[in-house]
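Quick one: examine this chain and its backbone structure tokens and tell me how the chain folds. Here goes:
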Amino acid sequence: MGTPQSQTFRKLFSRGVPISRGVALIGSPLDAAPAPADSYLMLKLTAAALSDLEKHYPGIQAQIASMEDTPSGPCPDCGRVDAARIIIGSTGRTLALAAASSRCHLLPNGTDETQGMAWFCHPCQKAFA
């Protein structure tokens, strides 16, 4: 049935409430005040935009909710947890995921440097396992 966070996400999302870090926002994420330095804005699209994506890519809302709920662990270099899941390849669906959430870091082509790396740290701009 999902974690309590994903259940909350689905309830709010189904009512068209924009979400950021599991917190409902007033207005769209683009209208929201900038996040504090120790926070990280994950979801980048409004509920209406995500609903449109669902029409083109069935199941993408559940995939985004799952990405939002998956903890990354701390970055070995800076210790922050503001990380995104690395997805290699550029298809319509992966582009939509990257546009919808900062929890997805898209690499068009994998390199030896990114081989085996699962996360991308936003503050220090490095990949880690």
